[in-house]
Specification:
Blueprint: H1 8-32, H2 39-53, E1 60-61, E2 64-65, H3 72-84, H4 91-113, H5 120-130, H6 132-138, H7 144-162, H8 167-183, H9 186-196, H10 198-201, H11 207-236, H12 238-254, H13 270-273, H14 281-293, H15 297-315, H16 328-339, H17 349-366, H18 383-400, H19 405-432, H20 435-446, E3 451-453, E4 472-473, H21 476-485, E5 490-495, E6 508-512, E7 515-521, H22 522-533
Parallel strand pairs: 3-4, 3-5
Antiparallel strand pairs: 1-2, 5-7, 6-7
Helix pairs in contact: 1-4, 1-5, 1-19, 2-3, 4-5, 4-7, 4-16, 5-16, 5-19, 7-8, 7-9, 8-9, 8-11, 9-15, 11-12, 15-16, 17-18, 17-19, 18-19, 21-22
């Protein structure tokens, strides 16, 4: 069996299969897990407060302007709510829709880079659809896949401009502007390095015309972003205006206080983020052979896209795994290209061993282990681990029978992630589904009682409870004074001790991120705070 038939129809079929994988994984995510605090719930709550106020310029969090993120994703939430009414599921569909668009753009980008290889786009989409980190954030209410979509639009623009078409610069400018509206000026870090390296991957460019066009594209992008930022800055006040024009980006990219990591922090995570592809020896063998034979224009383009971004993010102090999501299409394109000439490559042992290990761990956790019986988190079911072991063995058999390694590993990666979510479902819900607490807070507010949150509040309850009033965000002496001044109030208190709860009279209680959250009246809250202070 020839795993690289080379036909345009084969490429389209693989693209369709990739989209079907995405639909399946999105359905699994909707079924198996809630909106996860603190990020997903915070972003949906910001969109909810905009919707509630009828203010589509300035995002709000718990009643105050929210400057950490621009509004594009919130606008996408509003678009769905306009069509389908306010609901919990639409915000979780936005990222899968943009992921599907990104796969299509990746498919088309492969045709621009390697027009003689009609099947490469389908293989690239398949690699992208099964890379672990891409899939995780394709099924999350986060900004990174939306940003990746605009990065891909920009890459199409860069290639068109390199071919002498002026509309490529216009497309690049639109991508920059929409990227800024999606996640801020970080889009420039994703798009500009490849333009600087254009003489390497596309020799013969006229420098003056090229960089003049890039400058005009940046100006167009700035104009698009300012069309929102200027009126939003006027409406949001001085502090909000200062934050959106400089503070948020500078703080996070230069001297991040939130996610400070060492330079090497991403390296040990790569095998997980790029599973199953990173642990497959066949990919690295194909890459080494391709390098010895000489890098073509498309391969240089992918490296000029991917390597500078990875290096730049490694040196930026603030690091999170999802910051690398927009470079995943470059990896998928590169993998598809170097594997195109390695038809005999089989699925490697390390990838299979990793899948077998994952299945074995799930099976072990499913057993009735005495030390785990008293834990609050429920044990995972037996069947996902058993299926994963069976899937790994099936991949080994299929590889020996000549099934395409790209297809084989893609099925293994997609199946593993789906089964892991099913295995973790019973543990995730009790710890991260905060909707019951949010509804309890709503009932208290409906009864006319103010509510305080005795910790940093990430607005995790605002949307899920459809709350129309903010929570007082107080701690320490300020909270104690507030409780004394509001004897009819309630407070959400977070306790680490999950065992000694019987003596606490609560309006509602639930497990929360390894501890317990309790909704209690002012008198009980004051008593708990006093006991904690001792």
């Amino acid at each position: 069996m020839n795993p690289y038939p080379g036909s345009e129809a084969a490429g389209r079929n693989l693209l369709l299969l990739s989209l079907l994988f995405l639909v399946g994984l999105a359905a699994v995510a909707l079924w198996s897990r809630p909106l996860i605090p603190v990020d997903e719930t915070r972003y949906v709550s910001a969109a909810w407060e905009m919707w509630l106020r009828g203010d589509f310029l300035v995002p709000y969090k718990n009643g105050a302007p929210y400057s950490h993120k621009p509004p594009f994703m919130f606008w996408m939430f509003h678009a769905g709510w306009t069509l389908f009414g306010v609901n919990d599921w639409w915000p979780r569909v936005v990222s899968p829709l943009f992921s599907a668009g990104s796969m299509l753009l990746t498919f088309l980008l492969a045709r621009r880079l390697w027009p003689q290889r009609a099947d490469l786009g389908g293989n690239a989409a398949l690699v992208l659809a099964s890379a672990l980190l891409w899939v995780v954030f394709s099924t999350s209410a986060m900004f990174d896949v939306l940003l990746a979509f605009w990065v891909l639009v920009g890459m199409h623009g860069v290639l068109l401009a390199a071919e002498g078409r002026r509309r490529g610069f216009v497309m690049l400018g639109i991508a920059i502007g929409m990227g800024v509206l999606t996640k801020g000026p970080v889009i420039l870090l994703n798009l500009l390095p490849i333009t600087v390296l254009a003489p390497w991957w596309n020799p013969g460019l006229k420098w003056s015309r090229w960089f003049g066009g890039i400058g005009l594209a940046v100006l167009l992008g700035a104009a698009i972003a300012l069309a929102w930022a200027l009126p939003a800055g006027m409406a949001g006040g001085e502090a909000y205006r200062n934050a959106i024009f400089w503070g948020q980006t500078a703080d996070r990219m230069v001297d991040s206080f939130a996610h400070r990591r060492p330079v090497w922090w991403y390296l040990p995570l790569l095998p997980v983020m790029l599973f199953p592809w990173f642990v497959w020896p066949g990919l690295w063998e194909a890459l080494a052979r391709h390098r010895r034979e000489g890098l073509d224009r498309g391969t240089r383009f992918c490296l000029a896209w991917m390597v500078p971004i990875f290096v730049a993010f490694s040196f930026i102090s603030g690091k999170q795994p999802h910051y690398l999501v927009p470079m995943f299409p470059a990896f998928a394109l590169l993998a598809a290209r170097v594997l195109a000439d390695r038809a005999g490559t089989r699925v490697g042992l390390p990838a299979l061993l990793a899948a077998l290990l994952g299945g074995a761990l799930m099976l072990a956790a499913s057993g009735q282990i005495a030390s785990l019986r008293d834990q609050v988190v429920l044990l995972p079911p037996l069947w996902p681990g058993a299926l994963l072991v069976a899937l790994a063995l099936a991949a080994w058999v299929a590889g020996r029978r000549g099934v395409s390694p790209v297809l084989n590993l893609a099925v293994l990666g997609v199946g593993m992630l789906a089964l892991l979510q099913f295995a973790a479902m019973r543990s995730i819900d009790p710890l991260y589904d905060v909707k019951p607490m949010a509804l309890a807070i709503r009932q208290v507010q409906t009864d006319g009682h103010p509510v305080a949150n005795a910790a940093t509040y990430h607005a995790q309850y605002q949307f899920l409870g459809r709350l129309e009033a903010p929570l007082a965000e107080l701690r320490g002496p300020e909270l104690e004074s507030w409780l004394a001044a509001h004897p009819d109030a309630y407070a959400v208190i977070y306790l680490k001790d999950t065992q000694n709860l019987d003596g606490i009279e609560t309006r509602y209680r639930q497990m929360y991120r390894g501890g317990v959250a309790v909704l209690v009246d002012a008198k009980t809250a004051a008593r708990l705070l006093a006991a904690h202070a001792k």
